[in-house]
Amino acid sequence: MDHFDLGTYRRPISTFSAETQRWFDIGLNWCYGFNHEEGIKCFEKALETDPSCAFVHWGIAYAAGPFYNLTWKEHGKDEANRAARRCFDHVQLARSKAAGASLVERRLIEALSARFQQPHSVSAAEFENWDDAYAAAMRQVYRDFPDDHDVMALTVEALMMRTVRRLWNLKTGEPAPNSDVLEALEICERSIRLSDEAGATPHPAILHLHIHLLEMSTQPERGMRSAERLGTMCPDAGHMNHMPGHIHVLCGEYEKAKLASKKAVRANDLYLAYAGEPTYYLLGCCHDLHLMMFTCMLLAQYRPALWAADKVRSLVTRDVVSIPERPKLTQTVEGYHAMRSHVQVRFGRWREIIDEPMNGEPELYVLSTAMQHYAKGVAHATLREFAAAERERHLFNRHVETIPPERRFLSNPTRASLAVGAALLEGELAYHQGRHDEAYKHLRRAVELDDNLSYTEPWAWMHPPRHALAALLLDHGHAAEAEQVYRDDLGLSGAVQRCAQHPDNVWALHGLVECLKRRGETNELAGLQAKLKVAIAKADMAITSSCLCRTSFEAGDCCCH
Asked: InterPro entries, alphabetically (predicted)?
């Protein structure tokens, strides 16, 4: 529990015990890295050597409550009841022992009492009221203690929790309704500025939250410096190692995102070997592997992408997927289990997809079953095995109808994510059957549906539909529209939301270069070819098209390394 290197950040608290202080610091750093369950264990150890310490009870209450990756509404009913009881009880214990606490500790304890107003679960609307009340209380603590970096971090988090992953309007780039994102950004960046002016290391939680504040904005590159600094601060905190990858992948720095993922996986392996039984942090471990899959898919690196997908499956065992009363954990990790199908389709492993046995428990492996039918349908269509493709389409649609509308994967209803797959499957089947105009309508619809998914990183549908649309447009001579689609995907047109852009990805670069060659363009071609050469050198396969569902290409269009 105490042999992990979580960095050097410390917060002195009101205690006579050096051991209590040590365990408190470890627990707080785990929480700042979103491993709240481990944080609770450390705070409980801290109480053993100073049971009178009020602020350790604050720590347990804070850690047992909601955070950016587990909101109140994402708790199961019993899970929410247990959390509310634990948080309420420890806030009351903290208040009862507050005479020995410092002024700022007493204020933080009182602020947290606004977050946990009853010892039981309440309605979703009432939980939102608690979040609002806590944010208002933390604003006041920040006004009174404006130079305390923990207060800044806690205030930023409280503001973000009011509109989790609804910080920005993805279409306009403006703050989303009811979002406090500009206020939170100002506090974050003031904290960083004060640290820089003092020649001090920035607060790790501030850097962490700064990335979250900017990842769905129109300027993710604004978080690049925070990403670079956070990546070396907390060596054994997997989530903190991973977080820079959010910015790197959005900015086309795919190798850096891959490195962040590898560092996170190393740290997570250390933690999982120690932890034994699965905890909620397993979701974070799978998320880090999910980003590695996504990054390697954009790099055209099949082997590490498949390795990450297989490692997820080794972690997401049946006993994890079937844990009762923890819906966010079980539904999300089951979704990560399904992502292997995206890897297989991205890299055109058609026969492997077809030969893979179907999962035998579709009611448990909900998204995985749907994705298998989708992948098998695309594979059969591409191989012109149309009867089998139509059978898989039927099985896909029938299975999707059984998925409860309220079931979610990350920020989206599962059905909303799968609607992208349904349109792609219809388009692939129509195209390979020779119904090209109909196919393009379905594929354009897939792009539209994908663009209108709610924000999550990586994106909920991992294989950009624009890559399939443009490849099949180009395959049938529609080079002008294909060129526009590639420009949109690369972020060169400015016509699509920032989070739908994949700067300098090898697939779209290959397609755009092919388009420019076809129309004899020379001014722009040399620069793009230079970028493509760099991207090709990082791939572990030959690139023939932006999507391997396109089966015809000219020999000169193949890019090898």
From this structure: TPR-like_helical_dom_sf, TPR_rpt
Measured from the Cβ of residue 146, the count of other Cβ atoms closer than 10 Å reads 14
Phi-psi region of 419 (alpha: psi -120 to 50; beta: other; left: phi over 0): alpha
Structure tokens at 16: 């006579």
C-alpha 221 chain-centroid distance = 17
Amino acid identity of residue 4, one-letter, is F
Query: Which of 66, 107, 105 minimizes the C-alpha distance to 84?
Result: 66
Phi-psi group of 27: left, alpha or beta (phi > 0 → left; psi -120 to 50 → alpha; rest → beta): alpha
Q: Let me know: does 64 contact 84? Beta carbons within 8 Å.
A: no
Contact 187, 156 (CB under 8 A): yes
**DSSP codes, 158-215:** HHHGGGTT-SB-TTT-SBPTT--HHHHHHHHHHHHHHHHHTT-PPPHHHHHHHHHHHH
Domains of the chain: 18-229 (1.25.40), 361-463 (no CATH), 482-561 (no CATH)
| φ, ψ (nearest 5 deg) of residue 543 | -105, 120
DSSP, res 412 = E
pLDDT in tens, 328-363: 999 999 999 999 999 999 999 999 999 999 999 999
* pLDDT value at 560 more than 70: no
Question: pTM value?
Answer: 0.96
Q: What is the 3-state secondary structure (H, E, C) of 466-534?
A: HHHHHHHHHHCCCHHHHHHHHHHHHCCCCCCCHHHCCCCCHHHHHHHHHHHHHCCCCCCHHHHHHHHHH
Coil/strand/helix, residue 317? coil
Does residue 67 sit in helix, strand or coil?
Answer: strand
Tell me, letter by letter, the H, E, C secondary structure of 323-379: CCCCHHHHHHHHHHHHCHHHHHHHCCCHHHHHHCCCCCCCCCCHHHHHHHHHHHHHH
pLDDT of 6: 98
Measured distance between the N- and C-terminal CA atoms of the chain, rounded to whole angstroms: 46
Sign for the CA dihedral angle at 72, 76, 77, 79 comes to negative
